């Protein structure tokens, strides 16, 4: 689900669709990130739209109002009903966990063991201090292809010589063999000529490398794919994160984030 730092203050929220469901990501009054179904428990009305900040979550239909922690605080006339239990009508909340600054959600009833799924992910990416990076730019766009095709193309070098012979093909060296990871993700490292973020003629504009990044990591980029739908490139000066979510079998929504160290 991308990076956690895109919402920093209590009440900041973002509404988005995932797997056909409208979801609400919000920081509560204790600055804890929570993920809710974006629907009122009364009649299922949509609660919020887009992005913003609020002090409480109020349904536009009948005015049922929820605290940022999802608990129901106001429901007109319901307090007069001795059989109505406010605690049984909190927002539907989904399992959400943050690892190395990334958010992972599970919408089912039995969440998977994320520690087992990620395995040695944190150790392998330790040189980049992922949890300390700051998201400086985030874009959402639509691509006219299957979501799996987008991820496949991003994660392979085989097409560069054919498709990009005079541009980025000259920047990327043949990558090393894929690492033998213990989690449900794939990763490999590859050297680059200069920074892989800029074309050859633009290398003079490269930003400083990450201060604590030693060789060989400072000479290339690590490409990682967390199954099923998130991939990122950890480069010399930043990381580029891509989430691909299906819209139809031939269209997908891509969320792109670029993250830098605080001192860049």
TrEMBL record:
Q: What region holds the Rieske domain?
A: 1-105
Q: Which UniProt keywords apply?
A: 2Fe-2S, Iron, Iron-sulfur, Metal-binding, NAD, Oxidoreductase
Cofactors per UniProt? Answer: Fe cation
Give the molecular function GO annotations. 2 iron, 2 sulfur cluster binding; iron ion binding; oxidoreductase activity
Keyword NAD present in the record's keywords: the answer is yes
Instruction: List the InterPro entries.
Output: ARHD_Rieske_2Fe_2S, Rieske_2Fe-2S, Rieske_2Fe-2S_sf, Ring_hydroxy_dOase_asu_C_dom, Rng_hydr_dOase-A
> Could you tell me which SUPFAM superfamilies the record lists for this protein?
Bet v1-like, ISP domain
Q: Which Gene3D superfamilies match?
A: Naphthalene 1,2-dioxygenase Alpha Subunit, Chain A, domain 1 (3.90.380.10), Rieske [2Fe-2S] iron-sulphur domain (2.102.10.10)
Query: Pfam families recorded for this chain?
Result: Rieske, Ring_hydroxyl_A
Q: What is this protein called?
A: Rieske domain-containing protein
Q: Which organism is it from?
A: marine metagenome
């Amino acid at each position: 689900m991308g990076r956690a730092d895109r919402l920093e203050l209590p009440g900041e929220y973002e509404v988005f669709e995932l797997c056909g469901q409208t979801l609400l990501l919000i920081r509560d009054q204790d600055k804890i990130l929570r993920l809710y179904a974006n629907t009122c428990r009364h009649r299922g009305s949509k609660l919020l739209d887009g992005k913003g900040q609020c002090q409480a979550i109020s349904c536009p239909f009948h005015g049922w109002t929820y605290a940022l922690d999802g608990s129901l605080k106001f429901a007109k006339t319901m307090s007069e009903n001795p059989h109505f239990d406010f605690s049984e009508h909190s927002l539907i909340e989904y399992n959400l966990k943050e690892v190395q600054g990334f958010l992972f959600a599970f919408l089912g009833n039995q969440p998977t063991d994320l520690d087992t799924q990620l395995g040695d992910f944190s150790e392998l990416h330790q040189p980049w201090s992922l949890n300390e990076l700051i998201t400086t730019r985030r874009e959402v766009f639509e691509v006219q292809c299957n979501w799996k095709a987008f991820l496949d193309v991003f994660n392979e070098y085989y097409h560069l010589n054919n498709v990009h012979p005079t541009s980025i093909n000259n920047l990327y060296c043949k990558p090393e063999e894929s690492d033998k990871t213990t989690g449900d993700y794939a990763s490999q490292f590859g050297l680059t000529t200069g920074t892989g973020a800029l074309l050859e003629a633009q290398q003079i504009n490269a930003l400083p490398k990450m201060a604590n990044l030693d060789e060989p990591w400072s000479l290339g980029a690590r490409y990682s794919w967390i199954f099923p739908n998130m991939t990122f490139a950890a480069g010399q000066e930043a990381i580029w994160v891509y989430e691909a979510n299906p819209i139809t079998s031939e269209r997908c929504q891509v969320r792109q984030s670029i993250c830098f160290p605080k001192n860049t």
